[in-house]
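Reopening this ticket.

The earlier resolution said the output was attached, but the attachment link was broken on my side. Pasting everything inline this time so it's all in one place.
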Amino acid sequence: MKKRISIFVIIIALACLLFTLTTKVNASDVVEKIEGKTYYIAPNGLSSNDGLSEATPKDFYSAMLSLRAGDTLNALPGTYDCPDRITLTESGNAFSQIKVIGIPGQVIFDFSKQAFDSTNRGIQINGDYWYFYGIHIKGAGDNGMYIAGSHNFVEMCEFYNNRDSGLQLGRGAGSDTIVSQWPSYNTVKNCMSYNNYDDETYGENADGFAAKLTVGYGNVFDGCIAFRNSDDGWDLYAKSDTGNVGTVIIINCIAFENGWLLDGSTTRDGDGIGFKLGGSNMEGDVIVKNCMAWNNRLHGFSDNSNPRTMLLYNCTAYNNSVAVANGTGSLGYSDGGSTNFNMARSNQSYNGYYGLLSYCTNLTATNIDYEVGDDYLGSAAYCIFHVAKGEYRSITSFMDASSYEKEKIGSVYTGLNDNCFASVNWPYTQDQYPNLNSLLRNEDGSINVGSMLDVTDSKLLTFCNGSQIGAKLNKSSWDEYEHYNYTAPTLGATQDEIDVLAAKDALEVMCNKDAVYQNFPIWINLNECKVSWSSSDTSLFS
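Inline output:
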């Protein structure tokens, strides 16, 4: 029997508990807005220049290391020769970010002279409240950008030809062993990552975007594109050596053709999963909303044995488990070894699914049975899953669903075909791929994939209780999309108040709140904030 629940959340910073009797805040605790300076850099800039005008630009390294809270660094167009890793340890604050600004498509930080090595990242951000806009980062010996701090924002940037993941979040030092020390509340907006390849480890590690191994809470990817990376589009892998991880939110994103590279070559050890959402039976909450995955070498969406709760809303998966001809990159028919949705690899999995659409036409004539259909286990509603070659099951109301039990697999669905979409043919050729960040975006930078997998069938347009099933990623502006935004603090707030506000925004009830069939976990501590729960239904806390 399902229960409809209403949960109220109260969050108190532990740091404040000691001061509950204090009636005023020390002035030093208030976060001040700092008016910084504006600097300029150029590919031929000099460390001896003051950098205060376009006529006297500084060089990349000296300028970056001199930035302080409130400063803005304008990168003039061109390719910057960056042979060494740069580590940014300074921090801004909630009202005074440190900004590095480029014109999209015109500023390239080129780290290609670095050797392949795990320490040879391009830019490592250990500080908080940095803002990067309109920068290309290429060729690093490891990650293009590595974010170890919190409250950072990366927008309209591109990452390619790096020798590990294009952009990765993770701890800054091995001594940071608890989740509250790991990067939290970072946002990656309207970025693109492609053709990243760790050649010396046979493509096993280089993803488009990674928030793996050691990440905190509330890290958001919104409007991002990942393709032709040697391993996965997104990788949220965790392992027992470092422990469970915090919540990651992925919204309005696409992942396609991961598991091989721009030149058409496949890699020996790359997986090629569009959205890899965990690993090693370690726990980490994940929310994926309004995303698409197609033509990935392995799965479209996979829990990768993550036993924690994942919530997937209105996502579309098409022809994943694709066969790729090594050397040409041409796509062939699959033997069905993988699936569009692989969301029940662990028998501990119990997730929430709403509005998922799985469509598959690339299987061979061999017998493809239920063993290689979509895997799902959890509270589901208004979904269509591909369960065998040419066979689909629909879930048209909330139910306790399982692909492992025929009485819970859903009802037979017929009529799903190419004509249900405006197009199932990707219109872009390989030589256009480096320009996809402009071809797939509106003027304001929001994602727009055009007719690709756009649902047009009248039945599917109202399948979800009157709304469309699957993802909708061809809207005309940023404001038309739903986003996961953090509440802006008001000037005069303390850092404790800012941290509590961020923790409250990051906190999610990780269950399908309209239909609860099973116990679900709740956080009682989030980044040193104590979480108290109450409900009109006391049985929820039994």
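Reporter confirms the inline version is readable. The chain has five helices and 40 strands. The longest strand covers residues 7-13.
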